[in-house]
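Lab notebook, bench 4. Still working through the backlog of constructs that have no structural model yet. Next entry is a single chain of 313 residues. Request: give me the structure tokens for it.
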Amino acid sequence: MTATEVLVTRSARKARNARSGDERRRHTPHKGAIAIFTGPFGVLFLLFYLIPIGYAVWQSLQVVQRDGLYGEPQQVFGGLAQYALVFQNAPFWESVGRVLLFGVVQVPIMLGLALLFALLLDSPVLKGKKFFRLAFFAPYAVPGVIAAIMWGFLYSPNLSPFTQVTQSVDFLSPQLVLWSIANVVTWVFVGYNMLIIYSALLAIPSEVYEAARLDGAGQIRIAWSIKIPMVAPALILTAVFSIIGTLQLLAEPQVFRSFTAAVSSTFTPNMTIYATNSIPNTQLAAAFSVVLALATFALSFAFLKLTQRKAAQ
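Model written out:
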């Protein structure tokens, strides 16, 4: 065999080995195990997320027709007729405006308190961190309905143990009931958001703090210049969760209807949907739901884009 043939043979062997290596890399091992572990999630995601969304969209495109005055009702395709009714429904848009006002005031206060508590827990000055961590998080363990009932009794002039306060200030009046509900939501969810921010603080390398202390920075300076900027992604995440939760407000105002007439059946968008579906008008309620979901997505997406743009500057 000549030297040229030897070189050609070696080149062919190397190419063959390279192809077989590529094939090995392209081959995904344990495909069966991956399917077993992801299969249940895929089935549940399909059954309880994608199919309900598709069914809601389909229902929103239907209208009910009758043959004569006493004819049997039938669902027929109505196109965008239900969506036209949505945009003509003043109570629904008043409820959207109400929860937007709620979110503009309540969300910054809630996240500000959550950030403050997380910074306190991460501070070396605070003693008894385990106790305070549990105390800050404990309200989140109380279901929202139970929390609303508890605060409803505290707000009621005839039931509250603080009668001197509640008889002087009517927390359940039309002017204050929205902010009374905001206080309940803040009390429940501050601990949840604090835990997310605190976890982000724990992920910051200790070397960063050591370098800052060597430069003469105190605890307040470290918190302002290092901790808060480095937990900005966690703050953005909690803000997105809060935007979604604000537009889905339901349990607390629904419970407060038992304590005051200031909360109507259309007080929030979800209450409007619930009341519409109870008439029953399932098709219009589905259209309300689709519009609310799109509005929630649009607000969350716009907030993310805004924060990303500011971070890039």
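Notes after review: The longest strand covers residues 62-65. The two ends are 66 Å apart (CA to CA). Flag for follow-up if needed.
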